[in-house]
Automatic annotation (TrEMBL):
Residues 325-403 form the THUMP-like domain. Pfam families: Thump_like. It comes from the Bacteria. Gene3D superfamilies: Vaccinia Virus protein VP39 (3.40.50.150). This is THUMP-like domain-containing protein. It comes from Arthrobacter pigmenti.
C-alpha cells in the first residue's frame, strides 16, 4: 500500500503537484482532493500528494522547515529520529574522527541526513523498497550520501570506519503495528549488533528507552536522551564511540539547550542512595535520569535524599536550581485517605486539582473527580488551585501537598 502512496508523487506531475500545495488542512482536504481531480490530476496522484502533504505537516515537529522538502511513509515518519537528536548522534562520529559511516536500517533517512550534513561519507542501507525510495529523495541534496536497498546484515562493512543502527522495533501485521520489547525480535536483532561491536567496529545503536538494564551489554556506554521532558531513546555506544569513563548517562535536550549527567559506575549503584524524610522541597527527576538509574546522583547533587529506595522522588532541604529535576515546595504531608483528602480540599477551597503519582496504582482522574465532587457548590467562595503528589514510603501511602516552583 505504501508503494502506491509514494510512487505517484515520484512522477513529474505528482512531484510538481505536491510541491505546489499550500499548508495542509485536514478540514479542506476533501474539497481540495475533488478540486484537483476536476483539474485533471489522476486520483492516485491526488491521493498520494495529499498524503505526503499531510505527512510533511506532521513531520514539522521532528524536522522543522526541512519537512517541506522531504518524503515520508507513515511508519518511516513515526520511527524517524528528530533532527536535533540525530545531529547529536552524528556529532559523536565527528568527535571520534570517523569519516565513512554505514547507517544500517536507515528508514526515511533522518540519521543519515545529519551524518551527511556533518560531512561524513554515508551509505544508508534500507530493506524496504518504498522506505529506501523516500530515503533516496531525502538524501538527494548530499552528494556524500548513497542509499542501498538491501538487507543490512549482508552488507560488506570493510570499507567503513563506523556504523549507526536504529533497528525496527515494530512488527506490522493485519491488526496493525505493535511495539516490541524483546531486543532479539528487533530488526536487525541486538545479537547482530553485539557481534559487530565485538569485531571492534565503532558503532552506535538506538533502542527503546524501556530496555531493562540487564539487557545493556557490559562493554558499551548507554546514553538515555529526553526531549522537552519526554524520554525518546537510549543509545548504546561501542568501541571508540564510547566515551572514556562513562558507563551511563542522561542527556536532556530542551529548546534553550542541553544538560547531561553521566556516571562511570555500573547499573545498580543506586542501592546506596541516601534516604530521609519528606520535607523541604520535592524534586521530580527527568525521565532520562530515572531510566539511566541516576536518581541517587541527582539526590547527592541537591544535598538531598530519596524518600524510599524504590521511588524516584528526591527531597532536599533547600531550593537548588537543576536541569535534572522539577522542584516543588512541600506544604503538607497527609496520609493517603480519601476522607482526609476531601477535608483538605474543602478546608482550602480547592476547585482545580493537579495530581501526580509514583509507586501507587491510583488513577488520578478518578481520584480528582472523587475529591472535587461537590467542592464548587459553595457559590461565592474563591476557587483555589491545588497539587497533590501521591506516593509511598515502604507500604505507607502518602499524599504530599506541593506548590510548583
Ligand atoms: C527505526 S527505523 C530507522 C529510522 C531512522 N534512523 C531515521 O531516523 O529515519 C528502522 C528501519 O530499519 C529497516 N530494517 C529493518 N531490518 C532491516 C535489515 N535487515 N536491513 C536493512 N534495513 C532494515 C526498517 O525497514 C526500518 O525502516
Amino acid at each position: 500500500m505504501t508503494q502506491n502512496l509514494l510512487e505517484p508523487v515520484l512522477t513529474p506531475d505528482g512531484w510538481e503537484l505536491l510541491n505546489s500545495l499550500g499548508p495542509y488542512s485536514e478540514a479542506d482536504s476533501l474539497r481540495l482532493s475533488s478540486q484537483l481531480r476536476d483539474a485533471g490530476h489522476s486520483p492516485e496522484v491526488v491521493a498520494a500528494a495529499l498524503t505526503q502533504s499531510r505527512l510533511r505537516a506532521k513531520a514539522q515537529a521532528k524536522f522543522g522547515p526541512f519537512a517541506a522538502r522531504m518524503l515520508f511513509t507513515p511508519d518511516g515518519l513515526e520511527q524517524a529520529t528528530r533532527l536535533t537528536v540525530a545531529a547529536r548522534h552524528a556529532q559523536r562520529y565527528v568527535s571520534a574522527g570517523l569519516s565513512r559511516v554505514a547507517d544500517l536500517g536507515c528508514g526515511i533517512g533522518a540519521d543519515s541526513m545529519a551524518l551527511a550534513t556533518l560531512e561524513r561519507e554515508v551509505t544508508a542501507v534500507e530493506l524496504d523498497e518504498t522506505t529506501a525510495a523516500a530515503a533516496t529523495m531525502n538524501l538527494l541534496p548530499w552528494s556524500n550520501a548513497t542509499v542501498l536497498n538491501a538487507d543490512a546484515c549482508t552488507v560488506d562493512l570493510s570499507e567503513y570506519d563506523g556504523v549507526w543502527l536504529d533497528p525496527a522495533r515494530r512488527t506490522v501485521s493485519s491488526s496493525g503495528s505493535k511495539r516490541l520489547f524483546d531486543p532479539e525480535a528487533f530488526s536487525p536483532p541486538l545479537s547482530f549488533v553485539e557481534g559487530l561491536a565485538e569485531t571492534g567496529m565503532p558503532l552506535g545503536v538506538k533502542l527503546g528507552p524501556a530496555i531493562p538494564h540487564e539487557s545493556v551489554p557490559e562493554n558499551c556506554e548507554a546514553q538515555w536522551v529526553s526531549v522537552d521532558g519526554d524520554v525518546a531513546e537510549v543509545v548504546l555506544w561501542f568501541n571508540t564511540l564510547r566515551r572514556e569513563n562513562v558507563r551511563r548517562g542522561a542527556l536532556l535536550i530542551r529548546a534553550d539547550g542541553a544538560a547531561e549527567l553521566t556516571s562511570n559506575t555500573d547499573f545498580g549503584h543506586d542501592d546506596d542512595a541516601p534516604l530521609g524524610p519528606v520535607e523541604g522541597y520535592l524534586y521530580e527527576p527527568d525521565g532520562a535520569i530515572i531510566r539511566s538509574g541516576l536518581v541517587a546522583d541527582v539526590a547527592r547533587q541537591l544535598d538531598g535524599h530519596l524518600i524510599d529506595p524504590k521511588i524516584a522522588y528526591v527531597c532536599a532541604p533547600g531550593l537548588v536550581e537543576t536541569p535534572f529535576a522539577r522542584a516543588y515546595r512541600i506544604l503538607e504531608v497527609l496520609p493517603y485517605n480519601v476522607k482526609a483528602l476531601k477535608s483538605w480540599v474543602k478546608a482550602n477551597g480547592i476547585g482545580v486539582l493537579d495530581i501526580k503519582k509514583r509507586g501507587t496504582s491510583v488513577t488520578p482522574e478518578e481520584l480528582r473527580k472523587q475529591l472535587l465532587a461537590g467542592s464548587n457548590r459553595s457559590g461565592n467562595k474563591a476557587v483555589h488551585k491545588g497539587m497533590l503528589v501521591l506516593t509511598r514510603i515502604g507500604e505507607d501511602r502518602i499524599a504530599v501537598v506541593v506548590d510548583p516552583v
